[in-house]
Amino acid sequence: MSLLQTRSLEAFYGDFQALFGIDMTVEAGETVAIIGANGAGKSTFLKALCGLMPGLNGEVRFDGLELGDLTAHAIVRLGLALVPEGRKLFQSLSVEENLLIGAHTKRPGPWTLETVYGLFPMLHQRRHAPGTDLSGGQQQMVAIGRALMSNPKLLLCDELSLGLAPVVIKDIYEVLPEISAQGSTVIIVEQDINQAMAVSDKLYCLQEGRVTLQGHPDSVTRDQITQAYFGMEQA
Amino acid sequence: MEWVSTIIQGVLLGGLYALFATGLSLIFGVMRLVNIAHGDLIVLAAFVSLAVVSGLGLDPLMSLVIVIPVMAAFGYILQRGLLNYTLGNNILPPLLVTFGLSIILENVLLEIFSADSQRLLAGGLETASLALPGGLAVGTFPVMIFVSAVAVIACLQFMLYRTALGRVFRATSDDQQTAQLMGIDNRHVFALAMAVALAIVAVAGVFMAIRTNFDPSVGPARLIYAFEAVIIGGLGNPWGTLAGGVILGVSQAIGAKINPGWQILAGHIVFLVVLVVRPRGLFEKVQDL
Fold first, then answer.
1. Is the CB of residue B281 less than 8 Å from the CB of residue B274?
2. What is residue A44's predicted lDDT score, i.e. its pLDDT?
């Protein structure tokens, strides 16, 4: 049984339809990349999985359960965690408090304050600083650590590289294999195609709310991606 | 010396105002709800205490053992069953609903307890006094109220910054949607915040009832004092709220000293001056809550 399966998933912002029948299957242990241009519906898709998009059509099955109309906080308890776009650290909480609030669900697993600090030693030094005093890269580490503290079966990462320097992006992506090794399945949403292809086992490309390409990163060509990404008509 | 005494009385009165204000401030901080019924909830607590005192023959201060949990439970249910549904992107529904609640509470109390002025008698505590050096004397009970206000605010501060529940309150205050992604159920958190706020309201209501006469119509004036203390002190800062209460109390005491008719007016004028000079309060924190 797949860890995550969506069937004909549609999402709306008021009258505006953002997702048109997304079918996606993610097996446990995979790292899946979703790429696409701005406004393709990548973030909306992740939000829909997390229960943040009211009025969904279609079906989301996670770990054998139909998520249906479950609220966001109930879905987190099932083992689904999001690293939101733009980090979204709690500004009045310190680094350590941000991590501790991530463990609110008290799900057991490998990730604790100690193991997260092991993954990002830098955070241990700055654990008493307000989360928002950190650099963008460090804030991203807090956001990842905070999501890991809920010991998710499925970790969703939205635009990890957004606004970060290339050298910092490299550092952040280096920890993904370690996270996978601890048993989390990972979905990353990226605009940086090279980064996404390098770490993923499976690739989906979205364009205007539809899946335009899917496959193993090695089996798709540059041309195919360009077409799927930018929507250029095939000759 | 008379003026020193006046200022001390004002400071002590400020303790009561700080108690009025703390719950209001907490609720605004956690869920951005402006609770127009706050003053009437204080009066409700006073009447619950009156009922407990006359029904069970308890001492008014002992009645807190019952009034605090009753008000906290009422707060949880009120938030879960009604006020949560008013929260959203629009500021108007919570204002209208709590305004309506204020009118309902006032009229229900009027129906049950009549418009008669009431007072809780605490067996001589109201008139007891402590002698201070220099021939000054302060009321024992006002000192008790002030010490309680400091204790309540210290506990609240500890809860907010040193406990898991406080962490949840602050996270929810910062960003409700992201808090939900941590597995936090907003509806439950808001209800807990209202329960804590009404537990503080219970203390404020019982102290008010021992200190002064009250009847079902005095709620809105308590709301005004609470608002003024919160705004003078700066939103989201519990110690600032205490300072705001003290400034309001001292202003009123000085006003009354100059002319007995100026007590309330002096408080309002100082509030307005602060609002003009420092619209975000004297002790505004950089971040909300």
1. yes
2. 95
